[in-house]
Structures are given as structure tokens and as C-alpha cells.
Design goal:
The chain is α/β, with parallel strands linked by helices. Helix content is about 35%, strand content about 15%. The strands form 3 sheets. Strands 1-4-3-2-5-6-7-11 form an 8-stranded parallel sheet, with helices on both faces. A 3-stranded mixed sheet has the order 8-10-12. A two-stranded parallel ribbon has the order 9-13. Strand 2, helix 1 and strand 3 form a beta-alpha-beta unit. The protein is globular.
């Protein structure tokens, strides 16, 4: 499916008309990769979600930023545009039953919600971030994820928030977190992983297929309306992630322990912003230091991801086997 099939353009004086909406039309929003704290790979998650929805007989429409328009199943209607400029693509909301809102920005989320209300959208499932409640310690004008969540809650449209841990497929798009982002290059070229907190570091990762399955459950059922779903998986040690790659490659991978400042310099050179680096290093250390407590917190979440999707979670070993070509 090419973006030109259904296109939204700032230069166009006339917007193309979409086919009349029917019950069960789901609108997914996809943005270009972002490296800010807590951002998920919306393109990867969205494509998994689209395939799951189609398999259930649902109709799928997508608002995708340039660069994210290809690679969708043939029956998906793709509108080139951005959820951060919702008034430019207002026609994409017409006939929509539910929205998977991913990549929204606090400065324009109200505009997106206005378009949703005009289109009589019946449900919004928001892709938020893990831990936005910590923003409450700061002035509201500095909130990012909480500002988006609060706007959705006050929209008058039934809602569900999904707060995911880091997504395994983030490395494919180059989105948060920074840990592991350079491993495909260093493993391919040098057969080595260089990173801070190699022994202590832990990080929670969820498979994008599982995150998409949580989103599908929230979109297609009323069981989770008005709920915050913590789509979190157990924290993984940095060493275990390296071992998974080595096992799939069937060869050893050398490791070099860096200081936090050395890892920061590596990530800065690769374009990671300081805020994202700060959060990555903090989380690696925090999950290592408080592993037992945070593992129990994950297990205590109700409903759990497994409860929601009705099957065991996919593992990091699964993900590596699926994408081992990145490291060869």
C-alpha cells in the first residue's frame, strides 16, 4: 500500500474522500522514530496491531508520517499525514469506531481529540509510556505523557491508557531506550558489546507482538474501558540479553564494561538526547539495584499482560531468533 492511494497534503486544496466508514473501523496513528524518553516504535507496533485486527475481520485505517507509509497489509488504507497536525487530516477520522492513539504531542492532542469527537469516535486507546506518574512531582506545565493522558481522560470519549515498558523492537526503529541501540553494529563488526552497567544493569522489555495484542484487546473489548494497563514484562539483565544474541549466533560475544560517562559519549555520538540517556542509565541501575522489588511490582499488575492476551509472553530469545540477521 502506497501513501498516494489515500493522501493528506498541506499543499492540496481538496482532500480526497475516503470510503464510507462502517462499524469496526479502527484508526491507527504512526509517527517517525523519536528518541525522547518513553517513546515506543509506533510503526512496528502499529503494523503488528494492523495484522491482528485484520485477522479478526476489522477494517484498519492509518495516519502515517512520511517514511512510515509502506509495509502495511494491502487492505489497510494509509493516509499520509501526522497526528501532531490533526486538522490537516481531519477526513481520516470520518467513520472511525476506535482510535489507537500513538505519537500524540501535548501541544496538539486537543486538536486530535476535537476531530475524534466530531467524527463520533467511540473509543480511544492511548499508547502512553511506562512511569508517567512520576511527572506529577513536577509542575503541570512540564508534563508530557501525563498531559496527553489527562487530555484523553477529559475528552468525553471512553478511553484506555497503555503504559508499556521498553519495546524489544525499538532497536529496529531507533527509539527509546539507548541501551542496546549500537549492539547490532558492534556485534557485526567487532563481535563485542560495549556498555555501562554490564553486570548490574537490568531493563524491562516487552515484545512488540505482545504490546500490539494488548492494544487489540483494549480496542475490541469494553473490558478495559477507563483503565490504565501496565503493559510491562519482567526486567532482563544486560548480560542475559548478550547471552541470547550469542546463543542465536552460536558464537561468543566479547563484552567491555564502560563507565556511565563513556556510554553517554557513545550514545551522544549516535544522536541520543541527554534526557533519554539520563533515563536509560537511571533505569538500568534502578532495575538492577531493586530487581526483586520491581519484579514483584511487575507480577502484581492486574490484569497482567498474560491475562489480557490469553497466552504466555514472547521472550527476548524469541525476538532475537526472529531478528538475528541484525547481528550477522
Amino acid at each position: 500500500m502506497n501513501c498516494s492511494d489515500v493522501r493528506c497534503s498541506e499543499q492540496s486544496e481538496m482532500e480526497p474522500e475516503l470510503e464510507p466508514g462502517v462499524a469496526g473501523v479502527h484508526l491507527l496513528t504512526v509517527v517517525s522514530p523519536r528518541r525522547g524518553e518513553g517513546t515506543s516504535p509506533t510503526g512496528i507496533v502499529g503494523r503488528h496491531l494492523a495484522r491482528q485486527l485484520l485477522a479478526k475481520g476489522q477494517e484498519v485505517r492509518v495516519i502515517a508520517e512520511p517514511g512510515q507509509c509502506d509495509g502495511w497489509p494491502d487492505s489497510v488504507k494509509v493516509v499520509e499525514g501526522s497526528i501532531t497536525r490533526p486538522s490537516d487530516c481531519a477526513h481520516a477520522f470520518e467513520g472511525v469506531d476506535a482510535i489507537f492513539l500513538a505519537g500524540a504531542h501535548p501541544s496538539t492532542v486537543q486538536q486530535a481529540l476535537t476531530e475524534a469527537r466530531r467524527a463520533a469516535v467511540e473509543k480511544i486507546v492511548l499508547l502512553s509510556s511506562h512511569g508517567p506518574e512520576y511527572e506529577e512531582a513536577y509542575p503541570p506545565e512540564t508534563w508530557y505523557w501525563l498531559a496527553i493522558e489527562k487530555a484523553v481522560e477529559h475528552s468525553g470519549i471512553p478511553w484506555t491508557h497503555i503504559r508499556p515498558s521498553a519495546v524489544m523492537g525499538a532497536v529496529l526503529e531507533g527509539t527509546y531506550p539507548a541501551t542496546g541501540s549500537d549492539w547490532p553494529d558492534t556485534v557485526r563488526t567487532d563481535g563485542v558489546v560495549r556498555e555501562a552497567l554490564l553486570d548490574q544493569g537490568h531493563y524491562p522489555f516487552i515484545h512488540e507482538e505482545d504490546l500490539a495484542a494488548v492494544a487489540m484487546a483494549a480496542l475490541t473489548s469494553d473490558d478495559f474501558t477507563g483503565m490504565v494497563l501496565e503493559a510491562v514484562a519482567p526486567p532482563l539483565s544486560t548480560r542475559s540479553r548478550v547471552r541470547s544474541i550469542a546463543a542465536a549466533l552460536k558464537r561468543d560475544i566479547d563484552t567491555v564494561e564502560l563507565t556511565a560517562d563513556e556510554s553517554r559519549a557513545v550514545w551522544q555520538a549516535r544522536g541520543w538526547p541527554d534526557g533519554t540517556i539520563d533515563v536509560t542509565l537511571y533505569a538500568l541501575e534502578e532495575y538492577g539495584t531493586h530487581f526483586t522489588e520491581l519484579l514483584q511490582w511487575t507480577r502484581d499488575q492486574k490484569p497482567s499482560v498474560q491475562d489480557i492476551i490469553g497466552r504466555p509472553l514472547r521472550t527476548y530469545d524469541d525476538w532475537i531468533r526472529e531478528h538475528i540477521g541484525l547481528f550477522r
